[in-house]
From TrEMBL:
InterPro entries in the cross-refs: AB_hydrolase_fold, TEII, Thioesterase
SUPFAM superfamilies recorded: alpha/beta-Hydrolases
Top-level lineage group: Eukaryota
Name of this chain's protein: S-acyl fatty acid synthase thioesterase, medium chain
Taxonomic classification: Eukaryota, Metazoa, Chordata, Craniata, Vertebrata
One GO BP: medium-chain fatty acid biosynthetic process
Record's catalysed reaction(s): (9Z)-octadecenoyl-[ACP] + H2O = (9Z)-octadecenoate + holo-[ACP] + H(+)
Length: 258
């Protein structure tokens, strides 16, 4: 693995013979463990790279990033050889969906590399009106912020009830929301990808403009709504549906490369 890779990427199951890599970007405030587990759940043809951002897990002492470009620069600096070596796909939920989009756009524009599939979850496209009109939450007081987090669901109640844990958790969450609130991009005038894009969302979450994501690709575009609120994907039944979808589509992507 390249220098710096172990710091930035969590990979629980090394699979040198895998045909495709799935690169997963965390939700706001999230670490890398949730997606790194997927490496053990997906079949041996897929290797999972879960991105670990500064300010969490083994990088707890590092300052948070404040701009999307910092995330892109760091992740691409360690992953570029891997991106060139074999096919890759992207997965991101919420803030991670925004990061996946920014990453896909950047590697296409700068390195002319394209994922074989993009899986997006729980977010409006960054250039959609719904997104642009969303209230800015990173500036809320801790108390207001907690009220908002409680209202969207998905944060374990024991975390919300524990001031010490919250003190550790809130700064990362606010920093990531700040990144996304400051991230601006224009709606693509023409698709810059040709790969399939799959969107997922929780039926009880606040409505997102999922259709707007279609502007990024000339390939197949699908939307699947699953039961639950913002963190619907933590539900084991929903997680299985998502992982089955990923497996099915990455296996067909593989066939194109054999």
């Amino acid at each position: 693995m390249a220098a710096g890779m172990d710091k930035v990427i969590s990979c629980f199951s090394r699979r040198p013979d895998a045909v495709v890599r799935l690169i997963c970007f965390p939700w706001a405030g999230g670490g890398s463990i949730h997606y790194a587990r997927w490496g053990r759940l997906l079949n041996s043809s897929v290797e999972v790279y879960s991105v670990r951002l500064p300010g969490r897990e083994s990088r707890a002492k590092e300052p948070f990033f404040q701009h999307m470009q910092q995330i892109l620069d760091e992740v691409i600096s360690v992953l570029l050889p891997e991106l060139k070596e074999k096919p890759f796909a992207l997965f991101g939920h919420s803030f991670g969906a925004m990061t996946s989009y920014a990453f896909a756009e950047y590697v296409k524009k700068v390195h002319n590399l394209e994922p074989v599939h993009v899986f997006l979850s729980g977010a409006s496209a960054p250039y959609s009106e719904t997104r642009l009109q969303a209230p800015r939450r990173s500036q809320l007081s801790d108390e207001e912020f907690l009220q908002w987090m409680t209202s969207i669901g998905g944060t374990p109640p024991e975390i919300l009830a524990n001031p010490e844990v919250l003190k550790l958790f809130l700064p990362a969450l606010k920093a990531d929301l700040g990144v996304v609130e400051n991230y601006r991009c224009s709606r693509p005038t023409r698709p810059f990808l040709s790969c399939p894009v799959s969107c997922f969302d929780g039926k009880e979450d606040m409505p997102h403009d999922l259709q707007a994501w279609q502007a990024m690709t000339s390939g197949d575009f699908t939307v699947q709504m699953l039961s639950g609120s913002h963190f619907y994907l933590k539900n084991p039944d929903n997680e299985k549906i998502i992982l089955d979808h990923i497996t099915k589509h990455l296996e067909t992507a593989e066939m194109d490369y054999l």
